[in-house]
Structure formats: C-alpha cells, structure tokens
Task: structure prediction
Amino acid sequence: MIEQATEYILGAQPPELARLDAQSRHYAPATRDALLQAGLRPGMRVLDIGCGTGGVSLVAADIVGPTGEVVGVDAAPAPLEVARRAAEATGRYQARFEVGDLETWEPAEAYDALTGRLVAMYLPDAAAVLRRLSRSLVAGGIVVLQEFSMSSALQRPESPEFRVWNSWFIEAFRASGLPTDFGLELNDLLVRSGVVPEGAVAAAPVESGADATGYQLLAGIIRTLMPAIIAHGIATEEEIDIESFERRARETGADPRTTLMIPLLCSAWGRTPG
Result:
C-alpha cells in the first residue's frame, strides 16, 4: 500500500493549464465510459473534487444533463476560471465551481456521486478526505476515482530516446515523494474510505505516427516537471532541450508503424453503504 504524498509539483501557470486541457480531451472517452459504468445517470447531483480545469466536471455535466448538477471544487482559483469559461461557452449551466481546500472544505448539500481524477495521489491522507466527503452522499452513493499507472506508457517499437524521456517524468514524481502507479491502488483506497468496490477498468488511446497527441502531452509534462527533473539531478537543461523536445519526440514516431500509448488511466468505483 502506498501512502499519498503532499507535494503538488505541477503548478497552475498558463502552459500547465493548457496541458491539463489537452490531457482532459485525450482521456475524455475513458472518463465518460468509467462514469457511465459506475452508474451516473441524468438528474444526478455530482461532487467533483480536485476538479482543476473541469475536465471531469464537464463530462459529468453531459451525463447528468440539465436536470442534474455538478459542483467542482479545487484549491487553485486559476484552473477554476478556465473551467467556468468552458462551462459557459458550451452551455453546461448545470456545472458550477468553487474554491475549496479538500483538507477542510465541507459540502453544504447532499450528492448522488463523488468523482476525483488525478487528485488522490496528492492528498496526505486520501482515505480520510474521501471518508469525510463521502458522508455528503446519499445512501448507496457512487464514488469514482481515476489515477494513472505511469509505468504503463509505451512506444512500440520503442526508441532509446522515448525510454529515457519516459523515465524522466516517472523519476521526477518518485523523487518528489509521489506515487507513480497509484491507479493500481484504487480498490484499496476505496475500501479504506468506507466505500464498497464495484468495478475497475483501465484505458488509454493507442496512437500511431508523428501526429500522435501523446507526443505533445509528453513534451508538456516534461516542460512542467523541468524544475524538479533538474533539481533532483535526473537530467540537465541541456539534455532536456525543451524548445526542441516535442519535435524530437515526434521524430521518434515518424514511421506510421510506430504506436504510442501514454499512461493508462485507471478507474475504480463503488458505493457507500446503505
């Protein structure tokens, strides 16, 4: 069992928010499928914790429809502004967002479901937070968690460069005290949170050729993690050469027979007792 760390190393600067938006679009089908399998339906009220730029909140809003409601909560104001603008621009008025520290924030209303994508890994005691927040759910309420299995990223045939680059971001998370395969720990987390597990799945798009979105996302996470990569002695600024990184990454996949899969997004869900 891996205990979650406390350090959030990705920040909320504009390039990182743009990366999060691109990442959300990449994994939107996997998130939608997991939410549907977990039992989200029209008319439900959903609490989305650590919602960031609203990727999960907006998918959930589509599922619950105009008769439902989604409340996204995040500690950082900047990504919430992105989420609000996206909801307004697309007419998803059933989604609203508020600032809240998950360690202390208390829901004022009851919900049918709680969702959290790529948030549990950053909580010092994720089970305690989920246990507390799930008390706001109706009896038999749904809890859906999503986290990465970072070691599952692959390129086939694998270039030597990709092997090195993939190791950089994994080592940066580990050096910062963060779990890298927390997606495989989610059933355990559900149980420790007082939730009865019902199902789990893992998914990620498999792409081919130099135009694969995964190369853009790889370059984006390396750019965001550069300070940590350099500070922990994983690679130098010269080795990273961030301005040419995406071009070089795409060159390794120029052969249309080369396939790419960035990390699997693992989903697990269950229900509160009652």
Q: What stands out?
A: The two ends are 27 Å apart (CA to CA).
